[in-house]
């Protein structure tokens, strides 16, 4: 068997179909594998690598705290800064607030899956609306 035969091995059900349709099936298959690989990479990054993220304040938190003095518990004891006007948000008690749902990795995986499902649904709706 040559290389072209290897690529066509899974397409033998399309014997009566033209070359353009075979190319379309090949493209869909490649796109499917690309999407699966991308989803797997995103899940690994969200589930594993996110557990190694720094717990120290990010740039926005740091900039909001510039000008204030904090005690050991993180409370402002002196100075003037943007963080003095900080209040809790309305969803602070929700399961996903501050990655409190299980662990950071679990929250990341749930976020990736939710985004993938939402994006897939929107793409399907768009394609159905076009046809």
Automatic annotation (TrEMBL):
<keyword id="KW-0812">Transmembrane</keyword>
<protein>
    <submittedName>
        <fullName>PDGLE domain-containing protein</fullName>
    </submittedName>
</protein>
<dbReference type="GO" id="GO:0005886">
    <property type="term" value="C:plasma membrane"/>
</dbReference>
<keyword id="KW-0472">Membrane</keyword>
<dbReference type="Pfam" id="PF13190">
    <property type="entry name" value="PDGLE"/>
</dbReference>
<feature type="transmembrane region" description="Helical">
    <location>
        <begin position="99"/>
        <end position="123"/>
    </location>
</feature>
<feature type="domain" description="PDGLE">
    <location>
        <begin position="33"/>
        <end position="125"/>
    </location>
</feature>
<keyword id="KW-1133">Transmembrane helix</keyword>
<feature type="transmembrane region" description="Helical">
    <location>
        <begin position="31"/>
        <end position="53"/>
    </location>
</feature>
<keyword id="KW-1003">Cell membrane</keyword>
<dbReference type="InterPro" id="IPR025937">
    <property type="entry name" value="PDGLE_dom"/>
</dbReference>
């Amino acid at each position: 068997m040559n290389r072209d035969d290897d690529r066509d091995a899974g397409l033998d059900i399309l014997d009566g179909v033209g070359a353009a349709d075979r190319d379309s099936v090949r493209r869909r298959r490649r796109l499917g594998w690309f999407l699966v690989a991308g989803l797997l990479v995103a899940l690994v990054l969200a589930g594993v690598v996110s557990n190694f993220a720094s717990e120290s304040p990010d740039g926005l938190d740091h900039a909001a705290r510039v000008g204030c003095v904090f005690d050991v518990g993180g409370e402002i004891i002196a100075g003037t800064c943007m963080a003095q006007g900080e209040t809790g948000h309305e969803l602070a008690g929700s399961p996903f607030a501050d990655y409190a749902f299980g662990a950071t990795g679990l929250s990341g995986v749930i976020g990736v899956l939710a985004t993938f499902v939402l994006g897939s649904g929107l793409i399907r709706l768009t394609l159905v609306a076009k046809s």
